[in-house]
Design goal:
Layout: H1 15-34, H2 42-66, H3 72-80, H4 86-97, H5 114-135, H6 139-142
Helix pairs in contact: 1-2, 2-4
Subcellular location: Nucleus
Keywords: Nucleus
Protein name: Protein BUD31-1-like protein
Length: 143
């Protein structure tokens, strides 16, 4: 939960641009916390709170890392004041740095041109066909 706004805190430049969205998400958070959870399991009751918390953190993350719309000072201020979850953002940042965990295919054989590769492939295929033919038997052979 973000800290209460007092006059002693100096807000960095650009705060007035993101403040309305963060206050709106705060209001949604209070509403989700005060929502009665009649007949819901504990995890079902907590899901809206986690969803809003993630949404607020993702908003700050996107503004700084994706769109470069806010300064580093404002980003650090949001993290320090509890407007965003520092550890959750670290996971998202790591996820994006690793290429979204996408596996990149690299060939095992590096050949200078495709003709050489095709010749190698055809010779391997011919050898495999011979081996399969020698190892295979039919019912006629077993009689």
């Amino acid at each position: 939960m973000p800290k209460v706004r007092t006059n002693r805190i100096t807000y960095p430049d650009g705060w007035e641009l993101i403040e309305p969205t963060l206050l709106e998400l705060d209001a949604k958070m209070r509403e989700a916390q005060n929502d009665p959870n009649d007949g819901k399991r504990k995890c079902e009751a907590l899901w809206p709170i986690f969803k809003i918390s993630h949404q607020r953190s993702r908003y700050v993350f996107d503004l700084y890392h994706k769109r470069n719309a806010i300064s580093k000072e404002l980003y650090e201020f949001c993290l320090d004041q509890g407007y965003a979850d520092r550890y959750l953002i670290a996971k998202w940042k790591k996820f994006d740095e690793c290429g979204s965990f996408a596996l990149q295919w690299q060939p095992f054989i590096s050949t200078p041109n495709t003709d050489e590769y095709d010749k190698i492939f055809q010779s391997i295929k011919a050898s495999m066909d011979e081996i399969v033919e020698q190892l295979s038997w039919t019912d006629e052979d077993s009689d």
